Amino acid sequence: MKDGTLVEKKEIPTPSQATQEEILNTIAEFIRSYFTHDIDGIGIGIPGLVDSNKGIVYNLENIPAFTKVALKDYLEEALQKPVFINNDANCFALGEYRFGGADHHQNMVGITLGTGIGTGIITNGELYTGYICGAGEWGGVPYKDSNFESYCSSKFFRNLHHTTAKKLASKAAEGDPEALKLFHEYGMHIGNLIKYILFTYAPEAIVIGGSIRKAFPYFSEGMYEAVSTFPYHSISENLTIYTSKLEDSAIMGAAALVEEDRTPAVNSIK
C-alpha cells in the first residue's frame, strides 16, 4: 500500500490442515511475492488472539497447527523485514480510522458481521487491544440462550432460520414480509450488542463492516429501535452508526501497522 492506496492485491487458499512449518513457509513465500515493490515492513491481521508486542499467535480455531506460533520471529528471519501483527478486527478498525469515514472520531468501534463477529476499538485516537488482543471480544458475551455471536453473525440466519443473509436480503428487496421481519429481529440483536458497547466504551461512532453490512437497509430500523432504549440518551443520541465504504479496511489497517508502530503513543501495536 502506498499513500493510502492498495497497489496490488492477491489471494491464495489457506492450507489449514497442513503442518505448522508448511503453513509458515506458505505465508513467507506468499509475502515474498510482493517484494517486487519497495517494502518498509510487513503488517499482518490474524483472526484470533495475538501478542502484538512479541508477534505470537495463539489458538487459531480453523488452523489446528497454530496453537502458539512465533510468527513475527519466523517471518523476520525468513524475510529480513520488520513484521507487525494484530487481530484482524483491530486492523479493520484501524483501517477505518486511518482511511475511512471515522477519521474525525477520536473514540470509535468497528464491528465486522460475517461468519462470526469481530470488534476493534479506537480510544482517544489510539488503537486499544488489551492483553493479547483480547479486548472487545463481545461475540463471546452471554446473550439470551447463547452468546452475541449466535445472534449477530451469520449463525443467526444459518442456525436459527436455516437460510443465509444473502438469500434473505434478496427476498427483503422484493418486499417479502417474513424476510423483513427476520431482518428487523436481527437488527434488534445488533442494537442490543451496540448497547453493551456503549456501556463499556461510549464511542462517538460505530462502523459496521463484514459481508452482512450490505443488508443494513433491512436491519437498521430494528437496530436503531434497540439502541433508542439505551438509558443515557446524551450518549446514544450523539452516536453515529454507519457502514464501511471500504472493501479492504482490514488489509489497509494491517498495512498501517507498519507506520503506526513508529508513533510511540499507539497502544500495543506490533
From TrEMBL:
<keyword id="KW-0418">Kinase</keyword>
<protein>
    <submittedName>
        <fullName>Sugar kinase</fullName>
    </submittedName>
</protein>
<keyword id="KW-0808">Transferase</keyword>
<dbReference type="GO" id="GO:0016301">
    <property type="term" value="F:kinase activity"/>
</dbReference>
<dbReference type="InterPro" id="IPR043129">
    <property type="entry name" value="ATPase_NBD"/>
</dbReference>
<dbReference type="Pfam" id="PF00480">
    <property type="entry name" value="ROK"/>
</dbReference>
<dbReference type="InterPro" id="IPR000600">
    <property type="entry name" value="ROK"/>
</dbReference>
<comment type="similarity">
    <text>Belongs to the ROK (NagC/XylR) family.</text>
</comment>
